[in-house]
Amino acid sequence: MPDQKSERFRELFRRNKRALLDYFKRRVGPDHAPDLLQETFVRAIRRDGFENVADPPAFLKQIAINLSRDFARRRDSEAKYFVPGDAPEEVIEPAVAPDALYETEELARRLLEAIEALPPKCRQAFVMRRFEDLTHEEIAARMGVSRNMVEKHLRLAMERCRAALD
Fold this sequence. Notes:
- With 166 residues, the chain is mostly helical.
- The chain contains seven helices and no strands.
- The protein has helices at residues 4-28, 33-46, 56-81, 98-116, 120-130, 136-143, 147-165.
- The N and C termini lie far apart (76 Å).
């Protein structure tokens, strides 16, 4: 058996949905009216103490007024910043040549192999610098080595990566 609160809300919806839907159709058009009607009732349900509201239909109407104003402001803002033109689906993306794609994949594979072949401490310093964006001091502190040692590790890593790409 549904509880009393749910039943009261269903009855409120049944009695007010047509008037609110008609209001939204006039204010925002038939395409957006059902969504705003739903949002009106969602906001009412979520409101703490809604069951204590003295005039629920008037409260729903005020929510609807606010939603239609927000919708109009959003539409005006979008019209100001949106420039009509080609739809994104109609924009032709330049095709990537298969040989360029293969070359890029090959370079990435060789670079990954070079990084994996680095001595462990050197690889650790390189990963921290390039992928975690740590400073030399932060790397030194984490690894328990001097800043100069970090620089040596990074220099060796860069030399080996460059050699792998040449």
